[in-house]
Amino acid sequence: MKINLHINGSSYSTDLSLPLDISISAGRVKCFRAPDFAVKPVEAGRFIGSVKQGAPVNFFNMHINPHGNGTHTECLGHITETHEPIHQLLKSYHFPAQLVSVPLKTLENGDQVISSEALQSACPDTLHEALILRTLPNSDDKTHKDYSDTNPPYLQEDAMRFIVEKGVQHLLLDLPSVDREEDGGKLICHRLFWNMPGNTASVGARMQCTITELIFVPDVIKDGLYLLNLQIPTLPLDAVPSRPVLYLLTEDA
């Protein structure tokens, strides 16, 4: 099924029968010492919720930490004192999205970062509502890794300032976090992105904006402009497992 779209005065087409899933299934990656993803059949008396064990249906409980067990999308409720469920803040699910590949920079202390200079060099002059960052080097090791206690790459402060200044509302990246694994609780890039210097969402906070972490974009998906479908479940949490799906946009002649 093909559709036509109009974005900022330009016309595009895409084929909805050709989705590009950039999510990682829960349980394949882990970070921040999160407990392992697990599923277990419900047990009630003689009933065990597993067809394999004689039940008429599979009826499983799931144990998951959205931030630490796979691709997830988070809202500003991640850093607020008040409970801010993401499904109450994210009201649209389709966005024009620019995919860019960004080489990592190694600092003197050994940290690897996305720098402002590398990001500005990789991005076109105009950015849309969503920005997808693929860090380089890129390999499928990103799909089955425990990042805990490894000091994984993160964004430098100026890089996040650039993203916000460009009007990006939905940021997706193949890292566990936009901030350093151990930063003393400062969470500078999180706070910059949501315009939240404190722990309360005040006037000016970017309530509708989201960060999606632990994606994987294989090399066969080329840098360019896509239609993003950001799929989330209706769960009353600040972060939820998510499934970002891309559709290549072709500008009409």
Could you give the topology of this structure?
Layout: E1 2-7, E2 10-15, E3 20-21, E4 38-41, E5 43-44, E6 47-48, E7 60-63, E8 72-74, H1 86-89, E9 94-103, E10 105-106, E11 112-114, H2 116-122, E12 130-136, E13 154-155, H3 157-165, E14 170-173, H4 188-194, E15 210-213, E16 224-231, E17 239-241, E18 243-248, E19 250-251
Parallel strand pairs: 9-12, 11-13, 12-14, 14-15
Antiparallel strand pairs: 1-2, 2-19, 3-18, 4-7, 5-6, 8-15, 8-17, 9-16, 10-11, 16-18
Helix pairs in contact: 2-3, 3-4
Description:
The structure is a single chain. With 253 residues, the chain is mainly beta. It folds into 2 domains: 2-26 and 67-251, Glucose Oxidase, domain 1; 33-65, no CATH class. 11% of the residues lie in helices and 32% in strands. The strands form 5 sheets. It has a 9-stranded mixed β-sheet with strand order 3-18-16-9-12-14-15-8-17, covered by helices on one side. A hairpin with a 2-residue loop joins strand 1 and strand 2. It starts with a strand and ends with a strand. 34% of the residues are buried. The model has no long low-confidence stretch (mean pLDDT 96).
Short structural summary:
By secondary structure, this protein is mainly beta. The chain is built from 4 helices and 19 strands. 11% of the residues lie in helices and 32% in strands.
